[in-house]
Amino acid sequence: MEKMAAFIRRGSCVLFALIAWIGGLLSGDASVSAGNMEITRTLEFSYADGVSFCQGLATDGKTFYGIGAVKFLNYNAITKIDIQSGKIIERREMCLPKDLMRKGYSHLGDGCLYEGRLYLALEDFGFRHPGVIVYDPDTLEAVDFHMLPDEGRGTDASRGA
C-alpha cells in the first residue's frame, strides 16, 4: 500500500507539472499578478511530497494541515507540516474510511480547523452527494461525516450542468 501511494504521488506530480506547463504555454499569461503582498519566507518541497498537500492548507498557527487528492486515482492524503521548519511531521495517505469509499466518495477538498477539528469537503465520484468529513488533527483519523442536505445545493439545471 505504501509503495502504491508513493507511485501515485510521483506519477501525479509529473502529470500535473506537464499540464501546468502546457497550460502556461497556451495562455501566455502570468499565473500570478503583482500585488501588495510581501513574501517573508518560503518553504520548498519536492513535487512528490507536494501531491500529498496540493488540494489546500489549513493551519492552527503552529502546523499546516495539507490536503492532497487525485480524484481519478482515489488518492487522498493529509500531511502535517511544521510551520517554522517546513518539515513534514506526519503524512496519512489513503485516508478515506472504507465505508465512505464503498458509497462512492473519492475526493477530499479544501478544509479548515475549527474548535479542535479538521473539517474537509468530501465529494463522491459523481458529484451528487457532497459532504463534510471531520478529522482529529492530532491522529489524522476520521471521526465524523455529514452529508450535505439536498436543499440549498441546487439542481443540475440551476448549477448549469
Fraction in helix: 10-25%
In angstroms, what is the radius of gyration? 17 Å
Taking the sheet with the most strands, its summary is: 4 strands, antiparallel
For the record, give the distance between the C-alpha atoms at the N and C termini, rounded to a whole number.
Answer: 36 Å
- Strand arrangement across the biggest beta sheet: 1-2-3-4
Number of strands: 8
Tally of contiguous helical segments: 4
Beta-strand content: 25-35%
Provide the structure class: alpha+beta
> On the 0-100 scale, what is the average pLDDT?
80
Shape: globular
Tell me the series of helices and strands, N- to C-terminal: HHEEEEHEEEEH
Question: What is the total domain count?
Answer: 1
Segments where pLDDT lies below 50 for 5+ residues?
A: 157-161
Q: How does this model look, in words?
A:
It is built from 4 helices and 8 strands, in the order H-H-E-E-E-E-H-E-E-E-E-H. With 161 residues, it is of the alpha+beta class. It has one domain (2-159). The longest helix has 26 residues, at 2-27. It is globular.
Question: Which helices and strands occur, and which strands form pairs?
Answer:
Elements: H1 2-27, H2 47-50, E1 56-59, E2 63-70, E3 75-82, E4 88-93, H3 98-102, E5 105-114, E6 117-124, E7 131-135, E8 142-147, H4 156-159
Antiparallel strand pairs: 1-2, 2-3, 3-4, 5-6, 6-7, 7-8
Which labels suit this protein?
single chain, 161 residues, alpha+beta, 4-stranded antiparallel sheet, 34% strand, disordered C terminus
Question: What is the structure about, briefly put?
Answer:
This protein has 161 residues and is an alpha+beta fold. 24% of the residues lie in helices and 34% in strands.
